[in-house]
Amino acid sequence: MRTPLIVGNWKMHGTLGEARALAGAVRDGLKRPRGVEVVLCPSFTALAAVAEVLGTGPIQLGAQTCHHEAAGAHTGEVSPAMLVDVGCRWVLLGHSERRKEIGESDGLIYQKLRAALAHKLRPVLCVGETAEERRQGLTFPTVEGQLRAGLAGLAVDAIGGIVLAYEPVWAIGTGVNATPGQAGEVHGYLRGLLSELASKEIAQKTRILYGGSVKADNAGDLVAEPEIDGALVGGASLNAPGFIAIVKQAARVGAASKE
Ligand code: PGA
Description:
Strand 1, helix 1 and strand 2 form a beta-alpha-beta unit. The protein has twelve helices and eight strands. The longest helix has 19 residues, at 240-258. Helix 1 (16-29) runs parallel beside helix 2. The protein has helices at 16-29, 47-54, 80-86, 96-101, 106-118, 131-135, 139-151, 156-159, 180-197, 200-205, 216-224, 240-258; strands at 5-9, 37-41, 60-63, 90-93, 122-127, 163-166, 208-211, 230-233. It has two domains: 1-62, no CATH class; 65-210, Aldolase class I (TIM Barrel, Alpha-Beta Barrel), CATH 3.20.20.70. The chain is 47% helix and 14% strand. By secondary structure, it is an alpha/beta fold. 2-phosphoglycolic acid (PGA) binds at residues 9, 167, 172-173, 211-214, 232-236.
C-alpha cells in the first residue's frame, strides 16, 4: 500500500501575506488528514513564514528547487542545508519549467538529487515529455532518459528515498490533463524501470505522482488509477478550498485501498 501524496507547487506566486493566508486556510481545512500525506512548496521567500503557520502539524514543507552544494560562492542560490534549517523536508527537482527556463540539465538534476538526499531532504524528481515528443511517439524514451540520468549511480537504498512525478509538459498549466489511462501507462513504465534500476521491492514502494492540470474535478479519477500515487498540483494549489478538495479525494482513495 502506497499512501497517496499531494504536493502543492505554488511556483512564483504569493507575497508573505498571501502565503500565510493560503497556508493557514489549508492547515485549518486539513486538521487531521488521514490516509494521505500533504506537502506545500511555497517560494523561497515565503518558506519561513509558511513553516511558522504549519508549525508541528501534519502538513509538511517543501521547496521548489535547491543548489547542489552545501554552501559557497553561488550568488542567488539556496542550499539543501538552508532548506532543512528553515523546516523543509521535501524538495522538487527537475521541474520542466526549470529544465526549460533555467536550462537545468539531467546531469545537474542528478547532482541536486544527491545533495538533497545527503541532507535528508526527500526529492520529488519530475519527468515528462513535450507535446511534440508525444506526437513523435517518444514519450517512453524521453521519460526513460530523464529517469536513468536522474538516478544514475545512486545506491539502491537512495533510490528508495525518492518520489517521482510524471508531468507531461503539454498538460502543465494548460487545463488539459493526461487521462488516468495515459498517465497510468507511463507510471507503469516508470515503475518497471525502477525495478531494473533498484529492485522490485523498491519499485513497488515508490510513489509516482501525476502532475499537469490536476484540479478538484479530475483528482479523484486520476488518483483512483492504481499506478497513480498522488498529485503534484500547480495552479489549483493556490486556491485553498480547491486544494483541500483534491487532498480529500486522494484520502478517500487511499482509505478505500486499505480496506
Ligand atoms: P499545473 O502545474 O497543476 O498548474 O498544471 C503542475 C506543475 O507544474 O507541477
